[in-house]
Amino acid sequence: MLELRKDLFADERDDNLKEIGKGTQRQDMLGHVTGTSPYFDDHKLQGMLHLKVVRSAHSHARLRRIDTSEAERSQGVRRVIRASDVPRNLNTLLSLINFGKDDEPSLAVDKVRYKGEPIVAIVADSPREAYEAIAKVKIDYEVLPAVFDVEDALKPGAPVVNEVYPKNTFTYHETYDRQQLRFGDADRALATADHVLEQRYQMSPIEHAPTETNGSIAAPDTNGRYIVYTSTQALFFSVDTCAKILDVPSNTFHFIGGTVGGGFGGKVDTLTEPLCILGAMLTGRPVRYVFGREEEMQYGPPRGAERIYIKDGVMRDGRVVARKVRAYFDSGAYTRLSSYAAVKCAAHLPGPYTIPNVHGDVYCVFTNRTPATAMRGFGVTAMDFAIECQMDKLAHLVGMDPMEFRILNAYRDGDMKAHRREAKNTALIECVQVAAEKAKWPLREDFKRMSSRKDGGGARAAVTPTPRETHAPIAAATQQRTTYDRAPAATREPPPPPPSSPPPPPRPSAPSHGATRFSSVFGTRRR
Amino acid sequence: MAKTALQFQHNGRDVAIFVDGGTNLLVALRELIGDMTPKFGCGQGGCGTCSVLIDGELHLSCLTLAETVAGRSVETLDGIKDGPNLHPLQRAFADNFAAQCGYCTPGMLMAAKALLDRNPQPSRAEVIEAISGNICRCTGYEPIINAVLAAASGGRARA
Amino acid sequence: MPVTVKTFTNTHDAAAALSSDRSARYLGGGTLVMRALNEGDISISTVVRASDHAMTRIDASGSRITLGAGVTFARILAERDLGFLHAPARSIGGPAVRNMGTVGGNLFAPVPYGDFTVAMLALDAVVSVQGGLGGREISIDEFLQTRDRQTGVLVLAISFARPGSTDAFRYRKIARIKPKGGAVITLAAHLPVNGSRIVGARIALGSMAPTPIRARAAERTLEGRALDASTISAAAAAAVEGTTPGDNALASAWYRREIVGVHLRRLLSGQE
Predict the structure, then answer these.
(1) Less crowded by CB within 10 Å, the N or C end of chain C?
(2) Residue B83 belongs to a domain
């Protein structure tokens, strides 16, 4: 049951909530209970063709020869689409916000980098005829050594998964092989801590398993446009991605979506639309490209695997004085969104605790596994799992109650966070207190009286002196552009200056007012 | 491709179609009859979103060879409303917020109807058993179970 | 080649059609064959059906029970005389799958499915099949050992002796999802008792090999003994012997080997 604890932070909030705490009917509920909500696949178009893809049988292989001649003659086949048919056969999703290099073809060209990577697409009158033609495509593979483990991928001599990133790591700001956080001197603090605990955590890939599989239907419309029904979670993102890959203005497309049969992050990758539209362009007919369940589970992108090492220094009185984190995101063979997940992860360190010495290295690593993507809090989920497991172990190590241990270390208003921003509107202490109360978990009186708004700042607002690291700048990867990429070579900009420590923003003196405590992620709008 | 003539009752109405060999009932309903209420989720019997009633019995239309329903009665979510009025189960699902993305909802409603048609006052355990072949990835099942129980206790579920 | 559906009124003709065409599969409840077609299995281009009523007959009145291959799990659950088989029947799928899936089809279900067949193996069932040349009866052990070669025959029925007491047949399915889920492992035991001693014990395991198998070493530890704590311990320790489980999304081979003795102990000692 939903319970609003209006007693907490009552003076910071106008108690005028109109929606929160009240049931409000979904606008699409009537469609859902009558089965009339329009999902992408609920469109029956005259003369619709079916697209299926030939997928790589190997995790890492060079493509010596692809013979589609027999498939082209197969009954019911309207068109065989090969890599050379894709106008701009190299893309990365976040290129739309100028983040990362194009690294993934729609159809594999010279190499396959994960098992199940699309190589050839078949457009046929029926799914059965498409399957029969798939069996007739002959592919000559030269199998290459594959790497499936993030740490193995970083070892010298590891197979290069994706030539765009020859070190098997995503490159930030054209220079850095990781996201890095330095606050204070973690090594020195570890040397003087009463206890040091180092642990390894990891999480396997997790499939979103939406009940509706990924798919789309594209059909020629009047005036040279194409109408596209899609399962995408990111409609405008998908429009622009298709415009880029198919090398046409985005107003060529009329995308219709919005009713998604479960996504959870697994439907942001524009997996089916480009080939589906290309099929419609090349045949002049409506084309449907829908993943089967096995395709969705095996080759649909999962939440990526992560491996995390945490080394903490803790004092006998329970204060965590140092936290050193090394995390590896398994991006699979291509970037998709994992580069962004690593940024989010670094921004989340060291968790919601005030720790004076923090050292974080977060890598986005390429392996020969299925490319990973977004899923519900990705970038933070596994790290939080690791951090909270670690907090329990630390509490045990110093003989403290795990709830009280968290209250002791929780950040409070006025504390300095590892990113050199002042902690504001903190509420973890109150969260733990309420959770303990609900679970009938006994807390000592002094811990029950602690508050996010008391005893923060002061010494806890200090920025511990942070030693500068001298490291040779990592040579930026050569721009590996292959013949199939028609994009002009990007002009290289000089790398940005190394991040310096910005001074903490001045603390506004205006009294708190309104419902801002919970309102926003933007610092400028707080208090 | 050789086609086979097929006649059956669709939501109380006689229909006749020609199907290709091997066509499943889900494809026949959606593409040949135009009833989009049963959904494709897996084609394997794992998700239940294609559930329909065949002669009153719950079946998975994606695993049913279309030809096997010749002369039989097929009921889908499209047929459970009474004119403009929602079936009590549909109303209960809406009132109990028992749908989020809505994709499992047609199958859930048919599984629930199969239960209430046979057992108008089920226990909570019987409701859970009745929808155990249907996967919902959004709601966590509780609102759905509550909705079926609410429809049953309303005593308005038709036999 | 498009799929052709052939429907016959008698099993003899259906069996002939099945044995003469390597791309033909018999369609029972659809949970295996239609699934394969939906996933694009082009090795199947003929679907054979038989509308013979004998295929759906249940004879459960006497001490020898015969189930037609087309009998569904829902019908077994509706049959009061088959109470001892309700646990395995109920452990399969959700209601829709139980309304469709058949006893005959279950004989062909790959890991992690085929739970009912584990029960049949423990009950020393006999499988009646019709080939192109005629009918014959095969022990279920032999049928499962040669299962890959049996797709060309038509299974007509399966028969077995009714267990002597309700306690003599036991069944346990370990799944991660309740009430419905694929098996981590499945166990069934038939423990006939003469006086206070077990005579002719049969223990069957599912998901411990590519097909259901007997735990013969565990069976030997029970033979001629009373079902006491030391006998149960000996059987549990021997449960893993001769098994060759595989890895899948539900469990690793290692995990299956670790737990099979634990669950055999619980099955034999009557724990929930």
Answers:
(1) C
(2) no
